[in-house]
Amino acid sequence: MTQPVASVTPVTYSGWQSEKSGFMGRLSGPGFALVAIGCTLLLIPVNLASWTAAGVCVPVAAVLLVLAFGRVSGLSADEWILLAVRHQIAVARNQNVFVSGPFAPRSVETGRQPMDLPGTLARLRILEAPDGLGGLLGVAHDPVAGTYTAVARVSFPGLALVDTDKQAARVSSWAALLRTFCTEDSPVVRLSVHQRCLPDDGAALRSWTAHHITPDAPSAAVSSLSDLMEGAGPVATNRETYLSVTLSAGRARLAVKGAGGGQVGAAAVLVREIHALGGALSTASLQVMEWLSPRKVAQSIRTAYDPDAQVAIATTNAAARTPGWEGVDEGVDPALAGPAAAETGWGTYRHDGAWTVTYQVRTWPQAQVYATFLQPLLRPRRNARRAMSLVYEPLGPRRARQELAREKSKRSSARYLRAKTGRDESEDERREVNLARTQDAARAAGQGVVRMTAVLSVTVTDVEELETACAEMQADAAAAGLELRRMWGAQDVGFAAGALPLGQGLPDRRVGF
Which alpha helices (DSSP H) does 77-120 contain, by range? Predict the structure, then answer.
């Protein structure tokens, strides 16, 4: 009897489709207005039959059309102007500078300083909720968006050192997990996977060693061991992986009302959802190490804003695990989660003693890629910390059908116009049409549709190494087949999405006519 032979052909993946977010085609609202004004100016000399009017109107119209259709680093000229004006207004009003500490506002009722975070994170609050297992769960509440987010620290066996069958099985399990949320009544509106690659502080190793060295150990051996750990610390790297689950109170309003209503009811529904998620995570080979408590959530925020605090916090955490400890608990007080000071520049974000540059993935690989194609992005670097957030927003069947039908209609209309005008169809255009049809067929067969983006952040504590770290990031992204775009004029927003495991979501899609 012959044994089945395992597959030796690696499974490849493709099919990412860029989301069109223009007001009219690929034009933004201001871009469409520029085109309309430019076309009007071109008609004026014709109506007046005046060469003088043509000499004035034609150059102005040409400038307006260049501003509308010209592209620099993926952005049109009108978008650059809008970003620059908004940034300069913020600089003039000193709104790009954040100062905490004694300058933080105090509550009128209690006189205490609440959790103080800069920019778009200022509205967040870290709530406490029973996790159903005797502990406390930290919930990041956004009252403006009406969302509640729980964060888990997870571990996974990886894909690089396993055979192709296991790789395919793990990817399929993760796809099945995402598909469970592609329903009309799912209260979970967002999943985010966040991974950091940072130098190992060595605090845990030093704490373990201090507790396991016997009093009669030779001094020479102890000295050699100490020197070895001091030398190995800067070389070693550590990876932290988080999974964020975001619940919408609006979509789960009936369940929230049944659980008591308000923040208490929403937190109870969120706890119920994450407990139901346990089996699917195990199937996807993800092991939940812990669901973060309020202090642990604050710690993940604080160490991102202040990398130099990593060693002190790790040392305190290691001491807090010893029997009989009477000091502070593990983690950080939520009121101290934010930075002491931060400043948003045009292309950088300075926070405490570090500088960060954030990129968004604008184009995913067009060719077939393997399951490990993102691995180069988190290569250990001694001079920089890297972070990557993959944000998934599952779509319900009705919205998925509408989105894909709109894409098919737009591409079919463009194809018809090209045929009418005698233009040849490029391979890229033909591929986009086939991809839209394939995705719609997969949706009709029961597959889920997910909006997805990735945000990458690189952080250094020496500003002279920043551009080198950015160049290394871009080179690794090119090796992975990705096209990055620096988030000019919005580095503080990018930091919140890329460097923090808080599950900050995607912007709403702007739909044209």
Answer: 77-92
In sequence order, the β-bridge partners of residue 354 are 351
Residue type, 254: L
Distance of alpha carbon 188 from alpha carbon 146, whole angstroms: 12
Q: Kind and range of the H or E element at 257?
A: helix 253-258
Q: Give the whole-angstrom CA distance, residue 269 versus residue 278.
A: 15
Cβ atoms within 10 Å of 102's Cβ, excluding its own: 6
3-state secondary structure of 493: helix
pLDDT in tens, 25-53: 566 667 777 888 888 888 888 888 788 88
Phi, psi of 165 (to 5 degrees): -65, -45
Q: Collapsing DSSP states into helix, strand and coil, what is residue 331? A: coil
DSSP classification of residue 67: H
Q: How far is CA 309 from the centre of its chain?
A: 23
CA 383, 457, 286, 13: dihedral to nearest 10 degrees?
Answer: -110
What percentage of the chain carries pLDDT values higher than 90? 22
CA distance 480 to 246: 28
Distance between CA atoms of 287 and 312, rounded to whole angstroms? 27
If we measure between CA atoms, which residue out of 271, 302, 254 comes closest to residue 127? 271
Positive or negative, the CA dihedral 396, 399, 404, 407 is negative
- 471: which 2 tokens? 């160049």
The answer to whether the CB of 492 falls within 8 A of the CB of 119 is yes
pLDDT digits (tens, 9 = 90+) for 400-436: 888 888 777 777 777 777 777 777 777 777 777 777 7
Residue 217 buriedness (CB in 10 A; 0-12 / 13-18 / 19+) = exposed
Q: In a 3-state reduction of DSSP, which class is residue 490?
A: coil
Instruction: Judge contact between 496 and 502, C-beta under 8 A.
Output: yes
Helices (H) and strands (E) in the chain, counts: 15, 15
Nearest alpha carbon to residue 394 among 148, 181, 247: 181
C-alpha radius of gyration, the chain, whole number: 26
Amino acid at 214: T
**Hey, which residues does 449 pair with through a beta bridge?**
395
- Residue 246's pLDDT band, with cuts at 50, 70 and 90, is very high
Output the pTM of the full model. 0.82
